Amino acid sequence: PARIIALSNQKGGVGKTTTAVNLATAMAACGHRVLVVDFDPQGNTTTGFGIDKRGLAHSSYSLVMNESSLEDSIVPTQVPGLSIVPSTIHLSGAEVELVPAMARETRLKEALAEAQNAFDYVFIDCPPSLGLLTINALVASTDVLIPLQCEFFAMEGLSQLFKTLELVKKNLNPRLEILGVLLTMYDKRNNLANQVVHDVRQHLGHQVFDVLIPRNVRLSEAPSHGAPGLIYDVKSAGSQAYIRLAAELIQRLSQP
Amino acid sequence: PARIIALSNQKGGVGKTTTAVNLATAMAACGHRVLVVDFDPQGNTTTGFGIDKRGLAHSSYSLVMNESSLEDSIVPTQVPGLSIVPSTIHLSGAEVELVPAMARETRLKEALAEAQNAFDYVFIDCPPSLGLLTINALVASTDVLIPLQCEFFAMEGLSQLFKTLELVKKNLNPRLEILGVLLTMYDKRNNLANQVVHDVRQHLGHQVFDVLIPRNVRLSEAPSHGAPGLIYDVKSAGSQAYIRLAAELIQRLSQP
Ligand SMILES: Nc1ncnc2c1ncn2[C@@H]1O[C@H](COP(=O)(O)OP(=O)(O)OP(=O)(O)O)[C@@H](O)[C@H]1O
Ligand SMILES: Nc1ncnc2c1ncn2[C@@H]1O[C@H](COP(=O)(O)OP(=O)(O)OP(=O)(O)O)[C@@H](O)[C@H]1O
Ligand SMILES: [Mg+2]
Ligand SMILES: [Mg+2]
Question: Is CB count within 10 Å lower at the N or C end of chain B?
């Protein structure tokens, strides 16, 4: 069955989307069957693959509102072996519409049931919050990957995120595991960044990925060309880091 | 009466908190009576002023749930003339608790009524979403200031934000005006950043502040010292930009 990995951190701008887009691309490049689910109403992952949001027949909104099947909601990307469930702004309505609904926390999990045998890996990009959309993603997932900017404010939200993950694991999804914390936008010339790396590794030890994603302008340029960094500039330091991350991910998932 | 300014952008990590903390400090330094309301459950503005969230008797949560008065919810900061309504994680509960409540969109506006004569400026730091907390802040405000990172993804969300502001103005708060878009984390050596500045100024003209906030590590170091950038290092390029921004803000507000 598929490994379903949520990219989650309620702190904004820490690299959730950039990681979803580039890690999924790197995994597909290794020959795995990969699905990306854009579960953020901003739809940055959808744009990151150059998909035009106007004129989409279905999206993660219609999927989670049971208005379309997974098969109908999936569209191909320019990356061989990588498909996406795109997102539109309508998804922001789901957060309120699902509040009174039955089994509101398990809608996405049910909707992704068919993905189990069709894909090896599913990545779910979450919005910067711990609301119902993120809860749905965590309930649907086997693992959660936490991107963390090398900044002071980003560390502050970590303990709250871990508390929420505990609650989800205890009450809604006992299989949920923390795959690891990924340090992003690392600039080795910056004292604060080095301090954050040191502190986070000291506190969390092996839960922190060995791979550090460097601050690399090619990663932030890629979306304006409608392509993942790995396609826009595979030789860049950013893309190379995501390729190493894919290898470390596979190694972590194969450990007991 | 007070000018109430919401710092809002649903895109995460664009500089809402850093602008709230440093612009409010610069305005207080000019002798104005200033209140900052931390309306983000992450509580980064509260931490940005070095306030310990444990042991707070009241917060923006108790204020908006009508459990405490404004006077009881305000605490001083280390900046003369600057007070804060701090935030704790309990505020994340308000987003769900307020959904069925009466007049759920005007709770913060009612709560801030007493601020009208006690302060000259009120700054409200919003979370990275367009949910009920941000709607409450927009309804309570006379103006909205939109921080915008010089990045491609940040521009993508702008049209959605403007649509939401139109809806709020039409249906909930006819006095709401867009004070301006503030370009943040600008690095003049970065082509993408220069492209974004050019595109945004071309599209929005005078709605964009003349002042550009540069990417400046002293601004991101300051919160780890529990102080605004203007106190941590007033001579830094970041602090100086926020001082110039305060001057431009006053000039913009005095125009008919
Ligand atoms: N390693 C990197 N180097 C340089 N820029 C980066 C890097 N990773 C991400 N960025 C840029 O930083 C910004 C924030 O990243 P991104 O949008 O991926 O974060 P996010 O956590 O998904 O944000 P949100 O909370 O809004 O969903 C984007 O403009 C992105 O292009
Ligand atoms: N001009 C700047 N130069 C360098 N770093 C900055 C600047 N402005 C903000 N930062 C840093 O960038 C990160 C994001 O900024 P900030 O937290 O203020 O954004 P935000 O919009 O409030 O984020 P969120 O969406 O999570 O509320 C923080 O770690 C902050 O310290
Ligand atoms: Mg994102
Ligand atoms: Mg903030």
Answer: C
Phi and psi at B141, nearest 5°, equal -95, 155
Q: How far is A151 from chain B (nearest CA, A)?
A: 7
Of B11, B13, B99, the CB nearest to A99: B99
Contact check, Cβ <8 Å, A223/B96? no
Please check whether residue A94 is in contact with residue A135, taking contact to mean a CB–CB distance below 8 angstroms. no
Residue minimizing CA distance to atom 26 of ligand 1: B12
Closest CB to A10: pick one of B42, B149, B221: B42
Query: Under 8 Å CB-to-CB from A198, ≥6 apart: which residues?
Result: none
Ligand 2 and B10: CB distance under 6 A: no
Rounded distance between C-alpha atoms, residue B255 and residue B10, angstroms: 28
User: How many whole angstroms separate alpha carbon A24 and alpha carbon B223?
Assistant: 34
Nearest to B118 by CA among B71, B76, B176, B60: B71
Nearest ligand 1 atom to alpha carbon B10: 26
Per-residue confidence of chain A (256 residues) as pLDDT tens digits?
Answer: 999 999 999 999 999 999 999 999 999 999 999 999 999 999 999 999 999 999 899 999 999 999 999 999 999 999 999 999 999 999 999 988 998 888 999 999 999 999 999 999 999 999 999 999 999 999 999 999 999 999 999 999 999 999 999 999 999 999 999 999 999 999 999 999 999 999 999 999 999 999 999 999 999 999 999 999 999 999 999 999 999 999 999 999 998 6
Q: How confident is the model at residue B147 (pLDDT cuts 50, 70, 90)?
A: very high
Q: What is the CA radius of gyration of chain A?
A: 17
Is any ligand 1 atom within 6 A of the Cβ of residue B153? yes
Which two structure tokens, joined as six digits, stand for A253? Answer: 């998932």
Report the SS3 class of residue B48.
helix
* Phi, psi dihedral angles at B245 (to 5 degrees): -65, -40
Residue B16 CA to residue B155 CA, distance in Å, equals: 15
- Is residue A56 within 8 A of residue A86, CB to CB? The reply is yes
For residue A58 the two structure tokens come to 């279905």
Contact B153, A47 (CB under 8 A): yes
Q: Are strands B34-38 and B143-149 parallel, antiparallel or unpaired?
A: unpaired
Distance, in Å, from the CA atom of B186 to the CA atom of B196, rounded to the nearest integer, reads 10
